[in-house]
Write a structure and sequence with these properties.
Carbam_trans_C_sf, 21 strands, Carbamoyltransferase C-terminal domain-containing protein, NodU/CmcH_Carbamoyltrnsfr, nine-stranded mixed β-sheet, Carbam_trans_C, globular, alpha+beta
């Protein structure tokens, strides 16, 4: 069975291709265009269909999440499909026109596409409770599902208050002057570490008319009213207390709704999975994992970019009754041919030399910054060692250099870190690992100070030997410095999507303060090595 899986409309579009239950190829549109949250799914579709590994003429089924870009797929009964979906149908089976022929098609409700991907990361285990929590879906802003006998049962729609979902994060960002883009929540959340929850602010937020989620005129009037109150002044210190308070309300609301519906077992609670953009909230994720005493399944591409796989997984699992294989997070596009990398370096006047882990570690130990690409990129917004900027977390001023100067981010935003599994186990003997950098940990004083947030936490990626290049680099770096981690942040310049090719990397950083470029088994110094 060959399935084309699309997120065709809205932000963070992309396309995936499954063959016999395996995700063979996928790409997010923004990685091709460098436009963050790009909606132009036709670019991704043409890219996927041009790949040698994609059997275009033999595609059996197209799975597409809502909303649907009708001109792209030409679904003859799309109006009827959307009527059924808006009435509560989880999906609609129909046909579409693709490359001049009629192909079977499954239109998957937005929320079900998110839920299927999250359930997949939980192994589709019976009893799994899935919370899909986002700014806006097809029908809801938050939904609860349960995996029951190979079905995804929709058990609650909008069970969370306005301050418990993505709408609330966007509203708080807008209130504090950050605008309304899909990137707002990530910028705003970091403020919370600089503030403390305030009871007075909490009372005012709880008292907001819950209809704001569905009445945008009312929402704007509420925003204007709150903006006049001194507690909500956008000045940094005040804003930090607002965000800290909102984070507490958000986490409490999510915990409460999960606690009401989670499957109870003799030893605790059953599986829990999170989908939608709010599953990127590492503060809430970490608190939930602690409160329920078990791991929480979160796809690394839990936002709308995940639909490129979620729609196909839903069709395979819950329509066709087939179990897809586990997904590799390193499946966004493909690795770049070595000849193309060498040609890019040559035209940029850079000399390619063989990759040398001890030399890279020595440069990092001396305070250098490394841009690293390897193979296919990561699916989702986290840098996990295949499209990463790396730096020494013990080098004074490194956070400012990497975050503020290179990436030109807000000064208060923290950086994540990558650490080998064995060192993580020594530092956190009872800690659960975080291979996708979706949880936070209290970082011991002095361990990696430039990766430590103001509240003492760090978003850590735990890394196994299945990633030998970065694992070996970490080992070499620690042998030289005694430091058990590296700063790891996404490989993109200001305002751009994460770099996909060597040309993208050099476009962003060839004339910047990056010291060394690593592309799989070759590397090039920006200037003479130190």
């Amino acid at each position: 069975m060959k399935i084309l899986s699309l997120h065709s409309a809205g932000h963070d579009t992309g396309v995936g291709y499954f063959e016999d239950g395996r995700l063979v190829f996928a790409v997010e549109t923004e990685r091709l265009t460098r436009v963050k949250h790009d909606h132009r799914s036709d670019i991704a579709l043409q890219h996927v269909l041009s790949q040698e590994c994609v059997d275009t003429d033999a595609i059996d089924l197209v799975a597409v999440s809502t909303p649907v870009r009708s001109a792209l797929l030409q679904i003859p009964d799309l109006d009827h499909a959307m009527e059924r979906i808006n009435a509560g149908a989880p999906h609609h089976r129909t046909t579409c026109d693709l490359l001049g022929r009629r192909v079977d098609c499954v239109v998957v409700t937005h929320e079900l596409s998110h839920a299927a991907l999250a359930a997949h990361y939980a192994g589709h285990e019976d009893g799994t409770l899935v919370l899909v929590n986002e700014g806006r879906g097809q029908l809801t802003r938050s939904s609860l599902f349960r995996v029951e006998e190979d079905r995804l049962e929709w058990i609650a729609k909008d069970p969370l208050p306005w301050y418990g979902n993505g709408f609330g994060w966007t509203a708080i960002g807008h209130l504090l002057g950050f605008g309304k883009s899909p990137s707002v929540a990530g910028k705003v959340m970091a403020l919370g570490g600089y503030g403390q929850p305030d009871t007075r602010i909490g009372e005012q937020l709880r008292a907001v008319d819950p209809r704001v989620m569905h009445d945008l005129e009312l929402a704007e009037r509420v925003r204007a009213e709150l903006a006049q109150r001194p507690e909500f002044h956008p000045e940094f210190e005040t804003a930090a207390h607002v965000v800290a308070t909102f984070q507490e309300l958000f986490t409490e609301a999510v915990h409460a709704v999960l606690d009401r519906h989670v499957t109870r077992t003799a030893t605790g609670v059953g599986p829990i999975a999170l989908g939608g953009g709010c599953a990127l909230n590492i503060v809430a994720n970490s608190a939930l994992r602690e409160a329920f005493g078990r791991d929480i399944a979160v796809p690394p591409a839990c936002g709308d970019a995940g639909h490129l796989a979620g729609a196909g997984i839903y069709a395979l699992t819950y329509v066709l009754g087939q179990r897809p294989e586990p997904l590799s997070v390193y499946g966004n596009g493909t690795g770049e041919p070595r000849a193309d990398v060498l040609a890019t370096l040559d035209t940029s006047g850079l000399k390619a030399v063989p990759y040398d882990a001890p030399a890279v570690a020595r440069l990092l130990a001396d305070g250098g910054v490394v841009a690293l690409t390897e193979g296919a990129a990561e699916l989702g917004p986290r840098a996990l060692g295949h499209r990463s900027l790396l730096g020494n977390p013990a080098a004074s001023g490194m956070r400012k250099r990497m975050s503020e100067k290179l990436k030109q981010r807000e000064w208060y935003r923290p950086l994540g870190a990558v650490m080998r599994d064995e060192r993580f186990a020594e530092l956190y003997p009872a800690g659960r690992p975080s291979p996708y950098m979706l949880f936070e940990y209290q970082l011991p004083e002095g361990t990696a100070p430039e990766a430590r947030h103001i509240n003492g936490t760090c978003r850590i990626q735990t890394l196994g030997t299945d990633q030998p290049r970065l694992h070996g680099l970490l080992a070499s770096f620690e042998a030289q410095t005694g430091v058990p981690a590296l700063i790891n942040t996404s490989l993109n310049g200001p305002g751009r999507a994460i770099a996909h090719t060597a040309r993208h990397v050099l476009d962003d950083f060839a004339h910047s303060d990056v010291d060394l470029f690593v592309f799989d088994d070759v590397m090039a110094y920006r200037s003479e090595p130190r």
